[in-house]
UniProtKB/TrEMBL annotation:
The chain crosses the membrane at residues 6-23, 273-293. The gene is LOC101065426. The keyword Heme applies. Belongs to the cytochrome P450 family. One of its GO terms (molecular function) is heme binding. The keyword Iron applies. GO terms for cellular component: membrane. This is Cytochrome P450, family 20, subfamily A, polypeptide 1. GO terms for biological process: optomotor response; swimming behavior. It comes from Takifugu rubripes (Japanese pufferfish).
Length: 463
């Protein structure tokens, strides 16, 4: 009888071991509550595809498992943080930009994304200085490009439907390319070529890599790799050209002139990340801001009043922007309500802990920003567009902690805020925006939240 009991226990242990080995769905990531992998090779990829996007998947994940949850990218466990309280606890001392880290990883780049804390701090200071210098030297160009666009809108009949997405993407492309790479991109042919490759690359890293479809299509992957190669060749050519230029006034010049080592920075890769993210974030911040303004005449009137009080009849200047507090609130609330950047990621370089959960070294940690930005525990009436909420100090602190304001703001977002402020300061003082009746904006939340389809508005002259 004892022999049978020993055999039975041994059989059960062997059976459980076999199940754990043969069926990966019984494994768990780091002991953190979450989904088991549904496929040995793809992990939870099909669950992500089934939800439509990584953001929507994370929404359902945190609804089911709470603010700290896990899932699988292929054979790799991932930890997702879905509340402000848990994000505040996360310890990751490399001080890198989480959005940049994620984007570089998707592009297959590795330079400057981690490393020693001192390197990251030095690198961040160089980037901040590059942004300040670029905006100071090129602010008149931003004004000129915005004036041209608003002048075009003023010439339209009042009942003409204006394609918001198309116009804002062109504005972002013209602005970012010239401010980042120089005056040679004032030529339409170069901007058009850049846009063709930008659209292919951004589309595939935003969705193709995230849902695994890129790897399963030979033709799409070939098209993507060709676009990436052409973009890299263009950027390498620009870097070579700018090294011999006497006029050092744009973003790439500051990187060229910096004392950063090759280990700390790869100029071509950093320009690639800045251009891709900068165009997408700038265009979509402007799109969403104008969309929300078109739904509220009261917000438009309050902006108009602030512009008149602070600027008078003069154009906005870089020095005056900090005084436009309500405009800042409008842009903050635009970013929050639209979940402009719903996802960021970091590599856990040292073992960390959130609540009672240990996060092992080298784990991938997702910041579910889109979940946090509409968490009712953090924001009152989270789905309502309400710029007044940013008058509260607690709300400002929460926003700062998420990396959307202050010293934590990513370079691309700083550019976007500047361009959007200039756009609103010119537009609102000359035109009123009107939303078309019976139109809804559906959101595609990938790396940057974008309207699924073209969205249309109309304008009328402000009396």
């Amino acid at each position: 009888m004892l022999d049978f009991a020993i055999f039975a226990v041994t059989f059960v242990i062997v059976l459980v071991g076999a199940v754990l080995y043969l069926y990966p769905s019984s494994r768990r990531a780091s002991g953190i509550p979450g989904l088991n992998p549904t496929d040995e090779k793809d992990g939870n990829l099909q669950d992500i595809v089934g939800r439509g996007s990584l953001h929507e998947f994370l929404v359902s994940l945190h609804q089911e498992f709470g603010p700290v949850a896990s899932f699988w990218f292929g054979s790799r466990p991932v930890v997702s943080l879905g509340s402000l309280q848990q994000l505040r606890q996360h310890i990751n001392p490399n001080h890198t930009d989480s959005f940049e880290t994620m984007l570089k990883s998707l592009l297959g780049y590795h330079s400057g994304g981690g490393g020693a804390s001192t390197d990251s701090i030095i690198r961040k200071k160089v980037y901040q200085g590059a942004i300040d210098t670029t905006l100071k030297n090129n602010f008149p160009l931003v004004l000129k490009l915005v004036d041209e666009l608003v002048g075009k809108w003023k010439s339209f009949p009042e009942d003409q439907h204006t394609p918001l997405c198309a116009h804002q993407l062109v504005l972002a492309m013209k602005t970012i390319t010239q401010l980042a790479l120089g005056e040679s991109f004032s030529e339409d042919a170069r901007v058009i070529a850049f846009r063709k490759n930008h659209d292919v690359i951004w589309s595939e890293i935003g969705k193709g890599y995230m849902d695994g479809s890129l790897e399963k299509s030979t033709s799409r992957k070939g098209h993507y790799e060709k676009a990436l190669s052409e973009m890299e060749s263009t950027l390498l050519s620009v870097v070579k050209e700018r090294k011999s230029q006497r006029n050092k006034s744009v973003f790439v010049d500051s990187l060229i002139q910096s004392t950063l080592t090759e280990r700390q920075v790869n100029i071509m890769e950093d320009c690639m990340v800045f251009m891709l993210a900068g165009c997408a974030i700038t265009a979509n911040l402007c799109i969403w801001a104008l969309h929300f303004l078109s739904t509220s005449e009261e917000v438009q009137d309050r902006l108009y009043k602030e512009f008149e009080e602070v600027l008078g009849s003069s154009p906005v200047s870089l020095e005056k922007i900090p005084q436009l507090r309500y405009c800042q609130q409008v842009l903050n609330e635009t970013l929050r309500t639209a979940k402009l950047t719903p996802i960021a990621a970091r590599l856990q370089e040292v073992e960390g802990k959130v609540d009672q959960h240990l996060i092992p070294k080298e784990s991938l940690v997702i910041y579910a920003l889109g979940v946090i930005l509409q968490d009712s525990d953090t924001w009152n009436a989270p789905y309502r567009f309400d710029p007044d909420r940013f008058e509260e100090e607690s709300v400002k602190k929460s926003f700062h902690l998420l990396g959307f304001s202050g010293s934590q703001t990513c370079p691309e977002l700083r550019f976007a805020y500047t361009v959007a402020t200039v756009l609103l300061s010119v537009l609102v003082r000359q035109l009123k925006l009107h939303r078309l009746k019976d139109t809804l904006m559906e959101v595609r939340s990938e790396l940057v939240s974008t309207p699924r389809d073209e969205t249309w508005i109309t304008f009328s002259l402000r009396n």
